[in-house]
Amino acid sequence: MIYGTGIDLTEIDRVIKVQTQHPKFAKRVLTPKEQKIYQKYSGVRAHEFLAGRFSAKESYSKAFGTGLGSGVGFQDIEILDEPSGRPRVTEQPFNGIAHVSITHTKQYVMTQVILEKEG
After folding, report:
1. Which residue in 33, 92, 27, 28 sits closest to 59, CA to CA?
2. Which residue ranges form the domains of the chain, and what is each CATH number?
3. Is 104 a known active-site residue?
4. Residues 6+ apart with CB under 8 A from 4
5. What pLDDT digit, counting tens, does each position of 40-99 carry?
6. Active-site position among 17, 40, 104, 117
């Protein structure tokens, strides 16, 4: 049974600007495991990764029903890629299944999260 769904559209340039002005932004958004992956990337791919994780966590908080900050924070959600490249939520506050999708264009990243309860 679907508990909640959330979507987000984020401008990649906006994330680049925030990261440039606030160098600790990536550390605030990404868990330690996500940071290790992020540090392996450079240029456009690094920006896409950071914007994608930021957007996916925004989508998650909407699906969870709290928004970021009040009931769930960036560090409460971890999204790692499976060997196939499919993103998977590996850490979360929700007691159920979280489905996540991340897609990019040159300007935007769009994400969707569906939270599913068993039964």
Report:
1. 92
2. 2-116 (3.90.470.20)
3. yes
4. 62, 63, 64, 65, 114, 115
5. 999 999 999 999 999 999 999 999 988 888 778 999 999 999 999 999 999 999 999 999
6. 104
Residues at the binding site for Mg(2+) are 8, 58
Q: In what order do the strands lie in the sheet with 2-11?
A: 2-11, 108-116, 97-104
Q: How far apart are CA 2 and CA 23, in angstroms?
A: 37
Q: Binding-site residues, please?
A: 8, 58
Assess contact for 56 and 100: CB atoms under 8 A: yes
Residue with tokens 């490249």: 85
Give the three-state DSSP class for 18. helix
Q: How confident is the model at residue 119 (pLDDT cuts 50, 70, 90)?
A: low
Q: Is residue 57 annotated as a catalytic residue, yes or no?
A: no
User: Which listed residue (17, 36, 47, 62) is catalytic?
Assistant: 62
